[in-house]
Every structure is written in C-alpha cells, then in structure tokens.
Amino acid sequence: VTLSEDLGSVDLERALAQCGEEVLGAALETLAAFQRCRWDDCPTPPFDAAFFRRELAGFEEQVVPAGHAGSGPIAAFLDDLAARLAGHPYRLAHRDFHVNNLFLRGGRVLAVDYQDMRGGPATYDAVSLLRERAGGARLAADGAWRERAASVLEWSPGWEVRYLECAAQRGLKVVGTFVRLATAGKPGYLRFLPLVRRRAGEAAAALGAPEELLGLLRPRV
C-alpha cells in the first residue's frame, strides 16, 4: 500500500528565506515527535560502529590522498570517531533531516525521504538540520539553536561533545558524498561543498583531529 500526499513546493530552505529562522522551531517540534517513536522494531538495522566507519570510507576514497587512506593518523581518528558514535544514546533517526527534505505547510513542518530511518544517535538529525545545506548550515555557529534543540529534544548531559562527534562524522561523510556526486556529473552539489567542508573541519578540530585531516578540509585558494 502506498499513501501519497502533496506537501507543496515550500521546502525549509525557501521557508527560511521567506519567513526567517523561527521556522526551525517548527522543524524541531517535528523532530521531537519523530524521536518519540520506537526505533527497535525498524526493518532497517540500527547504526553501529562498522556502519559509521563504512560511511567515512567514502570520505577517504574521495578526499584523502591514496598514501594516507586506510592507515595512519587520519584512519585512526576515523576509527575512533565511529566507535564513539556507536556509544551514544539512541533515538529514531530520519537520517537525512536537512532543509531540502522538510516542507512547510499550514504552519507545520513535514518530512519526506525517511525510508532509511533507523536507530541512531539522538543528536544525529539535529546536526543535519543545523549544519547542512544552504539554509541550515549558516546557523551552525549559533549556539542558541543548539541549546534550543537540546531542550526540545531532551538530550542528556554531555550532549555538547556528542553533538560535535555527530557533526564531524556526518560532515565528513557528506563531503565525500558531494565530491563523489560532483565527479559523477552532478555539479549542483558543489554549491553546498565549501560550507559543509568548513563546518566539518570545525567539528573535527574541536575533537582534536590530526593536522593531516584538517588540512584536507580547509578552503581551497
């Protein structure tokens, strides 16, 4: 059975431009409702350390020079990052909760593209919302939105470090994905790349990533 619904054409990127940042509050309420659902009976298995590490392999393949991929300081940092995320408190994760998958209709924010939802870190979807794509990523430096997300989503103490860990893993994974898609003939993703690359670098630096990795994320001259 397929149930379809027309959500219109006002995605959250457009809504942010038209209505201002407060529409993110509605998005957080939608995410809170999503996270109140069970995740342990999803048909898709939950994230684990191996899954997180496979996602980071795309960054290694697309961005890390051949001589530094798979071993050395960069690989050690990525191994440790994947293991840390697997120890986070879990909620139901949409897995792609960014502004282009969210639509504003009748004052409510509705989500699409959730077929890959699974159990995952509690901060994972908020990282996507606040740090990816043109609409949300510009707010990543705004601590007030992170604090608001922590309150609405009821994150447990220590969320600040867990948020950074999710931001680093998700950011590195997305950088690798965007580079791959652009190389495959989809250059539209390049418009997102500079900001996502910078945000990933900021999160990785805050976690003590090696200079070999941080150098790959700095702006190209």
Give keywords.
221 residues; mainly alpha; two-stranded antiparallel ribbon; two-stranded antiparallel sheet
Describe the structure.
With 221 residues, the protein is mainly alpha-helical. 53% of the residues lie in helices and 7% in strands. It has helices at 12-19, 23-35, 49-62, 72-85, 124-131, 133-137, 143-152, 159-183, 193-206, 211-217; strands at residues 90-93, 102-105, 108-111, 118-121. The strands form 2 sheets. The protein has a two-stranded antiparallel ribbon. Strands 2-3 form a two-stranded antiparallel ribbon. A hairpin with a 2-residue loop joins strand 2 (102-105) and strand 3. The longest helix has 25 residues, at 159-183. The protein is globular, with a radius of gyration of 17 Å. The mean pLDDT is 90.
State mean pLDDT (0 to 100 scale).
90
Q: Structural class of the helix and strand makeup?
A: mainly alpha
Shape: globular
Q: Would you report the number of β strands?
A: 4
Low-confidence blocks of residues: none
Strand-and-helix sequence, N→C?
HHHHEEEEHHHHHH
